[in-house]
């Protein structure tokens, strides 16, 4: 429906104001200088904030999109910033006087105006090795942008399998709604975790490994072929997607619980 049709339908009593609000939210797209169309209402419609994939964008483009987004919404994630652009984006964010969350070993940033209230669900995040931390931190930033509390534990892979049990016990006791597992090499940690708990698991295969099956191919194939049910898998190194899915699951769970 076009906007005038929506308004006429409300006037004639054919649709409710709440239904009209949902339909109108689909039109909240703004073009910036002819090179980008920003979906400002994505957060309201899907619960997911705007994410700028910076790796393939020019510095000036990133700045313009960031500034316009933060004028209309509370937060934005700038992901995969080029090494040469990272300090410049940080300095730019400080000039905008917005708050900044960084990720360890990650070139992604969460920028926001008002303090983020962790009123959503809980997400557990773990990595097999230290090389997987950057990807896991991208997932954490995404979850926190979506108001989720995160419980993290890194370097708990199957090479020292005893390390995983204390943190898994903590996550179960904390009643996390979803667990993200980032793992390279053969990606075995995701399967292991999914066999031990009745919690949705999201595996992130990371581009860590040697020779045959390197760059995350072996980890991806292993996770996709897992015989353990309850494990879903995102693309190689895609912490942003894993965080968005996990936070949606967690926030949906907390919303259902609050309605009881």
UniProtKB/TrEMBL annotation:
Pfam families, per database record: AIRC
Top-rank taxon: Archaea
InterPro entries assigned to the protein according to its UniProt record, in alphabetical order: P2CMN_synthase_LarB, PurE_dom
Domain PurE per the UniProt entry, residue ranges: 121-256
Organism: Nitrosopumilus cobalaminigenes
Gene Ontology biological process terms from the UniProt entry: 'de novo' IMP biosynthetic process
Protein name in UniProt: PurE domain-containing protein
PANTHER family: PHOSPHORIBOSYLAMINOIMIDAZOLE CARBOXYLASE-RELATED, SLL1489 PROTEIN
Any one GO MF annotation of this record: hydrolase activity
Entry coiled-coil feature ranges: none
């Amino acid at each position: 429906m076009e906007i005038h049709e929506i308004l006429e339908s409300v006037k004639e009593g054919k649709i409710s104001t709440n239904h009209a609000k949902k339909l109108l939210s689909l039109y909240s797209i703004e073009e910036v200088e002819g090179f980008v169309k920003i979906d400002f209402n994505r957060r309201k419609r899907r619960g997911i904030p705007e994410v700028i994939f910076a790796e393939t964008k020019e510095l000036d483009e990133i700045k313009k999109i960031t500034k316009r987004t933060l004028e209309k919404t509370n937060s934005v994630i700038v992901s995969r910033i080029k090494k040469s652009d990272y300090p410049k984006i940080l300095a730019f964010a400080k000039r905008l006087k917005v708050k900044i969350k960084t990720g360890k070993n990650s070139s992604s940033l969460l920028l926001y105006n008002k303090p983020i209230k962790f009123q959503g669900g809980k997400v557990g995040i773990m990595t097999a090795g230290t090389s997987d931390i950057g990807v896991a931190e991208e997932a954490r930033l995404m979850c926190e942008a979506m108001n989720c509390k995160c419980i993290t534990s890194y370097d708990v892979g199957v090479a020292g399998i005893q390390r995983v049990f204390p943190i898994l016990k903590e996550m179960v006791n904390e009643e996390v709604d979803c667990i993200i597992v980032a793992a390279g090499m053969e990606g075995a940690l995701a399967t292991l975790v999914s066999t031990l708990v009745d919690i949705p698991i999201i595996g992130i295969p990371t581009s860590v490994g040697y020779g045959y099956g390197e760059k995350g191919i072996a980890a991806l194939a292993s996770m996709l072929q897992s015989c353990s049910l309850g494990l879903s898998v995102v693309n190689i190194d895609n912490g942003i997607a894993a965080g968005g899915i996990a936070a949606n699951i967690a926030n949906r769970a907390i919303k259902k619980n609050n309605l009881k």
